């Protein structure tokens, strides 16, 4: 959406910051965040651009008001051309080398998938050569060639997919704890068949005060939901797509 509007543009910048999403408080919407901590370390502190918040006390009495909210304002603020490259980021992508090879790329992790060893070796050579030509250094000893393959927190075998060992934080005392718990569960649920209804009592913990330090505790309903999810984590697994099926459904 932001690309179509011209707020973002594709780039070959050597800079790359990670992105992630968090659920907006009291809304069924998500906020895209860029981890700019490494960029902030390089920026010279100019001091505050706006000294304090505007005070409504200075609005004349009995005047009518209207409040405007700018949608996606962050993406609409133009960056100086000299600095724009430093704010580059990547999102997950799925690419294909011909009809038989699939390449999944996210940040610095690349997965290459092919129907047989010969085609995989060829695709792997093409991929590594392209990366080397672009100036990237590869860690040959970390290239995984035999199962189980570990990718983006998942453990993949010939037929199944399960999350790698996941520690679920069950002690919830603050909104920050609830965010961490719901974020972890929301990530694993596609692989474990966990529905939105299953998570609803836990996501209800995000409602209320917006301060990350505001108190939270597991309700009886949330405790039951958490036990159900922990059971699913220990017993369930996802299965890889079967090429022999008469259809292919991809989300």
UniProtKB/TrEMBL annotation:
PANTHER family: ENDOGENOUS RETROVIRUS GROUP K MEMBER POL PROTEIN, RNA-DIRECTED DNA POLYMERASE-RELATED
Protein name in UniProt: ribonuclease H
Species for this entry: Loxia leucoptera (White-winged crossbill)
Domain (Reverse transcriptase thumb): residue spans on this chain: 163-227
Entry keywords, A to Z: Endonuclease, Hydrolase, Nuclease, Nucleotidyltransferase, RNA-directed DNA polymerase, Transferase
Pfam families hit by this protein: RVT_1, RVT_thumb
Top-level EC class as recorded in UniProt: hydrolase
Taxonomic placement: Eukaryota, Metazoa, Chordata, Craniata, Vertebrata
GO molecular function, one term: RNA-directed DNA polymerase activity
Gene symbol of the encoding locus: Ervk18_1
EC number: 3.1.26.4
InterPro entries: DNA/RNA_pol_sf, Rev_trsase/Diguanyl_cyclase, RT_dom, RVT_thumb
Record family assignment: Belongs to the beta type-B retroviral polymerase family. HERV class-II K(HML-2) pol subfamily.
Domain of life: Eukaryota
Positions of the Reverse transcriptase domain: 22-94, 101-156
